[in-house]
């Protein structure tokens, strides 16, 4: 009998995280379906299965439910598996990693599939402390296609501009005039993408207008492997998308990054951005060495088998640890709020 899995989907960034995993599940002859939370757009294709209601998920009775956000419904059947929506780059400038959102234990997940040393070490410490979940270093499901895809050579210098949504950190409102100037003056292509939680419509409309009026600008709703391939350089602030781009062995220019380092060409002033991009296009040797070391620290596995390791980890948990760990905290108030939001009391 085939195993069944569910993808718990809250935001559009979940689709490229889950789809490589879906491919690996199907390759094993198993089944998978999607549950999409209210408010999240349905971007499924015709061959992808959706479970419309909570009762549908219960009836589907999966072996495991994957979550890439901070929350998953505790009352759903199956092993709750955290696969993350980014890397732990500590974009808010945390000096204590245990205070970072990436490492916050909220009591929802049975197992965490970490990406590399930067996340595994801390989660292993938390595993020993709480004894309510297990940690497996598998690598991130989203990046498997990065290591299976063919290299792309740009015909024209191309910049991928991406931002975080965090107020006070996002560069989107600050760099719009600078990017507009460079679009008009430089012989570069631009690809623009923004975090789905960025809700400043006035700023987003300015970038959309830029794409509408200039042939060398493309506005991207959901960044893909192809978008990373087609860019030579990334311009960013403090988003974990920096790490994804570096996995293609490409340089990143940042504006006021909260954790600057030798792996970045970081700028503090908008007047420095143009020159930093010019330097990045030359791919300085020492910079590229730092890029490789930094990316390996966060994503240790480059064989394109992260999804297979995640499924193997689920099997190991199911056989060796399910029902044998300490019980999770009751979290009665959080659980009540979740059920009340859904009006689901079964």
UniProtKB/TrEMBL annotation:
<dbReference type="GO" id="GO:0047355">
    <property type="term" value="F:CDP-glycerol glycerophosphotransferase activity"/>
</dbReference>
<dbReference type="InterPro" id="IPR007554">
    <property type="entry name" value="Glycerophosphate_synth"/>
</dbReference>
<protein>
    <submittedName>
        <fullName>CDP-glycerol glycerophosphotransferase</fullName>
    </submittedName>
</protein>
<dbReference type="InterPro" id="IPR043148">
    <property type="entry name" value="TagF_C"/>
</dbReference>
<dbReference type="GO" id="GO:0016020">
    <property type="term" value="C:membrane"/>
</dbReference>
<dbReference type="Pfam" id="PF04464">
    <property type="entry name" value="Glyphos_transf"/>
</dbReference>
<keyword id="KW-0808">Transferase</keyword>
């Amino acid at each position: 009998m085939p195993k069944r899995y569910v993808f718990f989907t809250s935001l559009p960034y979940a689709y490229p995280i889950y789809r490589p995993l879906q491919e690996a599940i199907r390759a094993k002859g198993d089944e998978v379906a999607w549950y999409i939370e209210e408010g999240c757009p349905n971007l499924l294709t015709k061959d992808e299965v959706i479970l419309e209601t909570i009762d549908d998920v219960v009836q589907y009775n999966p072996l495991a439910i994957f979550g890439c956000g901070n929350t998953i419904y505790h009352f759903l059947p199956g092993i709750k598996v955290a696969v993350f929506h980014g890397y732990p780059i500590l974009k808010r400038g945390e000096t204590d990693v245990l205070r970072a959102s990436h490492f916050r234990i909220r009591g929802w997940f049975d197992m965490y599939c970490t990406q590399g040393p930067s996340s595994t070490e801390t989660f292993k410490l938390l595993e020993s402390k709480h004894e309510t979940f297990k940690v497996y270093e598998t690598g991130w499901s989203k990046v498997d296609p990065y290591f299976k895809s063919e290299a792309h050579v740009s015909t024209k210098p191309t910049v991928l501009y991406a931002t975080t949504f965090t107020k006070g950190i996002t560069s989107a409102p600050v760099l719009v005039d600078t990017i507009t100037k460079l679009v008009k003056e430089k012989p570069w292509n631009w690809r623009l993408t923004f975090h789905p939680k960025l809700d400043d419509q006035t700023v987003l409309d300015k970038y959309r207008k830029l794409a509408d009026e200039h042939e060398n600008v493309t506005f991207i709703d959901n960044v893909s492997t192809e978008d990373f391939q087609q860019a030579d350089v990334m311009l960013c602030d403090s988003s974990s998308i920096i790490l994804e781009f570096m996995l293609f062995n490409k340089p990143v220019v940042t504006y006021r990054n909260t954790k600057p380092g030798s792996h970045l060409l970081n700028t503090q002033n908008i007047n420095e951005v143009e020159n930093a991009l010019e330097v990045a296009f030359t791919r300085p040797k020492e910079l590229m060495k730092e890029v490789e070391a930094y990316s390996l620290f966060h994503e240790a596995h480059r064989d394109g088998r992260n999804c297979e390791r995640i499924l193997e980890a689920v099997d190991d948990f199911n056989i060796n640890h399910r029902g044998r760990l300490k019980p999770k905290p009751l979290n009665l108030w959080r659980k009540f709020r979740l059920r009340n939001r859904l009006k689901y009391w079964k």
